[in-house]
């Protein structure tokens, strides 16, 4: 055993000890020993070899010799079997309505977190708690996932993600990687860009992309002056909607500064058209800058209105610039807006113009105060290619913009772009030649939407990995029918030149992704039994005088039957219960196993019920008992050598 191996062994031991939770491997081995001859010795031997806890692989361990890496750049993504990736990737899932977790650089998919969708594996959209959050919906469209911050970097507590389809914002806990809140934003359609504040992180700002008549009750259909979009603030802790600002143009992407002073929203349709193709007439739209302090002052002073049935305070900031909103002209139908890791610049991408517009953030106050014109906040406008959409950053002053039509990522230098702009726009013509800010254009395959880099959205950007989320893979993968996978390409940006290292097929359609070092997240191994779901279950337990972590009881109240059922591998605490046809039955199942990844669940034949119950967790589901007969319920998660035998009977009487 060499030194490294010894060290790793020791760390693993310590990691196991301080959680106080056994590993699933220990458990399976022990279970199999009791579990008679059901598992062959071969299976166990395989188990032993691959189990155990590995430490994240160090860059050094990962790196094959330099010459090999040069010959085959894909080796840079190599994370050997049994080793952990050094980075997490948090991916949105687009029209799948979910969020995904990847290991970077291997690009191995680790988890799908159901958010706005129904998920048969975990029972999301089937369990009582998830149904309550979803309010009857089954479809979603997630675009932008961002994490909670403290002092400019991730604090590892929450992820937030939008639902463009139904105007919602969700929060995912990062200890359990589970959705814990969903909030409906009033009067908003097409909720698109979202961004949490980055310093104290009290608020998440959300843009509604679709202008609608407000109030939207069928009265005004075609009067553009009755239309507006909303910039909405949601409280990070309570997930309450705090206030909204009404604005004239469609709000697209969103970004915040690093001081909690401003939020930014790119706007297209300054034309205020109510229908296409009116959106495309003006050569310039704008970047809206919201003055959060002035807005919060006015909200506190009650200088607000309300819209429709909603009680949320609203400020009407349509029309000319005032103390709440500044409009910085940006060509044409801009899309992404991104703030660089130094917090000095906001970069707007032109989409229908081949440029990025760089706004210097410390000039904004003067523009609000009328000391300079809004356009004087612009300090650079490099030509980056046809169809610029989004921009990511490294820690060396470079920006990386995804160029949709050209199918490239353009790397450009911010300082050079600013210098060139100053020379080109100087009142006195200068003899100095403007520097060329463009460093490289890398072909991607094909048509990139978002681009993002490791820690690019924080003040700790590290310039290591970049991902280009391409909308089309065309001929890069085996064909799988008319719909092809998207292609998420991983690019090494640690050197002078960007190097493509991996093609990653993705189920449609991740819009955005962030990459952060693995140490920033601290997932739990067992259910922490806190949060909205447990508030609900604990209240029922109190009502029934039951301890969910111990009791097995069937309680009938009229036509309502509640079944409190524990599980310990490989047995349910209740192996048979009886109900009547048409009863409303609620099964609350608690997993008493205290072993990492030792999950049970509850699948009920012929009743469309399937759910996951985490170690030490509870889950509940409510359904109508079907026709008289015997219905087997069983455990869907492989938990023991006798997993297959883990089942019971629901007897339905006439
Ligand atoms: S979007 S391809 Cu929904 Cu962020 Cu730009
Ligand atoms: Cu419990 Cu399988």
Features:
654 residues; mainly beta; six-stranded mixed beta sheet; five-stranded mixed beta sheet; 10 helices; 14% helix; globular; binds (dicuprio-$l^{3}-sulfanyl)-sulfanyl-copper; binds dinuclear copper ion
Indicate the topology.
Elements: H1 3-19, H2 24-34, H3 41-50, H4 59-62, H5 66-71, E1 87-92, E2 98-104, E3 108-114, H6 128-134, E4 145-150, E5 153-163, E6 168-173, E7 178-184, E8 189-196, E9 203-210, E10 212-213, E11 227-235, E12 241-247, E13 250-256, E14 262-268, E15 284-291, H7 292-300, E16 314-316, E17 325-331, E18 337-339, E19 345-349, E20 356-360, H8 364-368, E21 378-380, E22 388-393, E23 398-403, E24 408-413, H9 414-424, E25 438-443, E26 448-453, E27 465-470, E28 486-492, E29 499-506, E30 513-517, H10 532-544, E31 553-557, E32 560-568, E33 571-572, E34 576-580, E35 584-591, E36 600-604, E37 609-613, E38 618-624, E39 629-634, E40 647-653
Parallel strand pairs: 12-16, 32-35, 34-40
Antiparallel strand pairs: 1-2, 1-30, 2-3, 4-5, 5-6, 6-7, 8-9, 9-11, 10-11, 11-12, 13-14, 14-15, 15-17, 18-19, 19-20, 20-21, 22-23, 23-24, 24-25, 26-27, 27-28, 28-29, 31-32, 32-33, 35-38, 36-37, 36-39, 39-40
The chain binds (dicuprio-$l^{3}-sulfanyl)-sulfanyl-copper (RUQ) and dinuclear copper ion (CUA).
(dicuprio-$l^{3}-sulfanyl)-sulfanyl-copper binds at residues 143-144, 192, 253, 335-336, 389-390, 449-450, 511-512.
């Amino acid at each position: 055993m060499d030194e490294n191996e010894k060290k790793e062994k020791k760390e693993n031991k310590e990691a196991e000890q301080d959680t106080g939770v056994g590993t699933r491997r220990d458990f399976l081995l022990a279970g199999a020993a009791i579990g008679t001859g059901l598992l062959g010795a071969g299976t166990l031997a395989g188990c032993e070899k691959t189990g155990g806890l590995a430490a994240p692989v160090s860059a050094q361990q990962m790196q094959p010799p330099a010459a090999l890496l040069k010959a085959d750049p894909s080796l840079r993504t190599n994370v050997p079997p049994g080793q952990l990736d050094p980075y997490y990737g948090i991916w949105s899932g687009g029209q799948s309505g979910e969020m995904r977790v990847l290991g970077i650089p291997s690009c191995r998919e680790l988890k799908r977190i159901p958010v706005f969708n129904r998920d048969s594996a975990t029972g999301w959209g089937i369990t009582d708690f998830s149904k309550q959050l979803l309010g009857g919906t089954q479809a979603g469209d997630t675009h932008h996932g961002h994490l909670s911050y403290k002092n400019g970097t991730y604090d590892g507590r929450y992820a937030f993600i939008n639902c463009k389809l139904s105007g919602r914002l969700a929060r995912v806990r990062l200890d359990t990687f589970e959705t814990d809140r969903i909030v409906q934003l009033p009067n908003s359609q097409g909720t698109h860009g979202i961004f949490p504040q980055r310093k104290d992180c009290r608020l998440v700002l959300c843009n509604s992309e679709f202008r609608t008549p407000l109030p939207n009750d069928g009265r005004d259909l075609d009067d553009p002056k009755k239309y507006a979009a909303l910039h909405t603030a949601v409280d990070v802790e309570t997930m309450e909607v705090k206030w909204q600002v009404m604005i004239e143009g469609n709000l697209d992407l969103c970004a915040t500064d690093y001081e909690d002073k401003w939020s930014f929203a790119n706007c297209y349709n300054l034309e205020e058209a109510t229908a296409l193709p009116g959106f495309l007439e003006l050569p310039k739209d704008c970047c809206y800058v919201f003055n959060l302090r002035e807005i919060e002052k006015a909200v506190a002073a009650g200088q607000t209105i309300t819209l429709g049935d909603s009680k949320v305070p609203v400020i009407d900031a349509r029309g000319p610039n005032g103390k709440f909103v500044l409009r910085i002209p940006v060509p044409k139908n801009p899309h992404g807006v991104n703030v660089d890791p130094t917090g000095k610049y906001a970069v707007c991408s032109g989409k229908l113009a081949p440029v990025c517009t760089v706004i210097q953030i410390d000039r904004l106050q003067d523009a609000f105060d009328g000391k300079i014109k809004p356009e004087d906040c612009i300090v650079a406008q490099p030509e980056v290619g046809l169809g610029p959409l989004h921009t990511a950053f490294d820690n060396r002053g470079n920006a990386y913009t995804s160029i949709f039509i050209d199918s490239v990522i353009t790397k450009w230098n911010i300082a050079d772009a600013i210098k060139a702009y100053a020379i080109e726009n100087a009142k006195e013509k200068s003899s100095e030649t403007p520097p060329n800010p463009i460093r490289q254009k890398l072909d991607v395959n094909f048509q990139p939407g978002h681009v993002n880099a490791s820690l690019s959205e924080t003040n700790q950007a590290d310039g290591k990995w970049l991902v280009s989320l391409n909308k089309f893979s065309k001929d890069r993968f085996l064909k799988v029918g008319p719909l092809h996978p998207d292609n998420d390409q991983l690019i090494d940006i640690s050197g002078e030149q960007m190097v493509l290292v991996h093609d990653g097929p993705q189920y449609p359609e991740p819009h955005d992704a962030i990459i952060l070092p693995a140490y920033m997240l601290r997932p739990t191994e067992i259910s922490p039994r806190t949060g909205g779901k447990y508030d609900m279950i604990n209240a029922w337990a109190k009502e029934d005088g039951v301890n969910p972590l111990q009791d097995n009881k069937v309680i009938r109240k009229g036509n309502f039957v509640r079944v409190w059922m524990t599980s310990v591998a490989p047995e349910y605490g209740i192996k048979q219960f009886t109900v009547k046809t048409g009863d409303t039955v609620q099964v609350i199942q608690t997993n008493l196993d205290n072993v990492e990844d030792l999950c049970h669940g509850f699948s009920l034949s012929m009743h469309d019920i399937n759910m996951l119950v985490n170690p030490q967790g509870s889950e509940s589901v409510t359904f109508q008992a079907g026709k008289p007969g015997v219905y087997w319920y069983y455990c869907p998660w492989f938990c023991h050598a006798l997993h297959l035998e883990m089942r019971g009977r629901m007897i339905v009487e006439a």
